[in-house]
Each structure stands twice: as structure tokens, then as C-alpha cells.
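Study the following:
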Amino acid sequence: MFYVNWRKIITMSIYTLTINNHSDSSHESFVIFQENEKAPRDIATVGKVFRPFDNGMTHQFEFSNDFEIAFKDSWGNFTARRKVEYGKQYAIVVCPEGSKIVEKETITENLDCFEMKNDFTTGYVDCMVYRSGLLFAEFKELGPNRKTVFSFKPNIYIGMASGLKEGDPINTDANYTLFNLEGIKAAEINYTDGMFDLVILKRCD
């Protein structure tokens, strides 16, 4: 099941993925990812991986519409994760106890995105965006006093791939199925012999 309003923070929901009449014996995995609308179109981050399983099996997974972010500095230190909202800018800053994330300002002209900024005077940082505890987007080696922008439509991509794990980069030029989830409160994703189908169970009121 899935509840989506891509500009608001709302509750966690559940999808059901069902495999029917799956004749592919390649043992590829099923992957789900999203595209950052402010990033190059050919690369994204694997958000969820389902390992091969038998016909008729179902797999439920949580998919929150809350975003969390974290930074990693060039020494390998991670900040604590922080929940974010669209229309805001968040920066990594140095403080007496180490590094932390602070909210900088409202991006009034860009309410469909949020920004992550490196407020260090020296050193690169990696920027990470999480959904349901899983890494769904990443920007590596952001320079001092630079920022990067994240924006996500209510879309997911699903397909088959081999050798990938959650958090890996994925080439989006391959053949993946796109589902627009706007206005959908509950749904099932069915896979039958190479085809994915979204069955809407309930729409938002």
C-alpha cells in the first residue's frame, strides 16, 4: 500500500509486490529507485532490492514519504540523520562536539525541492537522502561553500538487474517500468513474465 503527496510529509505506507508465472531463470533481482529531478537523468541510486523468489510469493515493504538526510565528511565521519522538508536548505557545519546539520533558510522560490550545503571552509562532503531508512539518493564530493539540490516526483521505477545492492548507483537508461503514484493510497505491483502492472486498490480521498 502506498500513500503519496509529494510536497508534504505524511505517514508511512506499505507496497505489496507479487510475482506470478515468473519464467526468468537468470536469478536477477528486482530493484526499485527514484530519480532526483535536479540531477543528471542517466544515474540514480538503488533504493530497494528484492532477491529472487518463487512464483506466487509476495513481498511487502515500507515506503515512507518522510525524507532524512545525512552528510559524510572526507575523513569518513557521518552526521546524525535529520528529517527534512521541501523548501528548506540544510548545511553541515562545524561545532565543538564535531559536525552537525543545521537548517539555514527557506527557499521560497523553490518549494518543490530541498538543498544540502557544505558550509566547511575546506574539505569535501558526501550528501545522502534516505527514505524508510534506505539510501535513495546521493551526491558525492560536494566542495566547500557549495550546495546541491534534491527534488522527487511521486514516481518510482522498478525493474530487474543483476549484481546490484541497495545504495549502489544504477544506470537509468536501461529498461525500467515507471509508475506515477500521485493520488494513490493503496496498490499492488504484480510481475508476470517480464511485465509489471500496478493495480490500484484505493485512491486518496
Notes: Residues 1-12 have pLDDT under 50 and may be disordered.
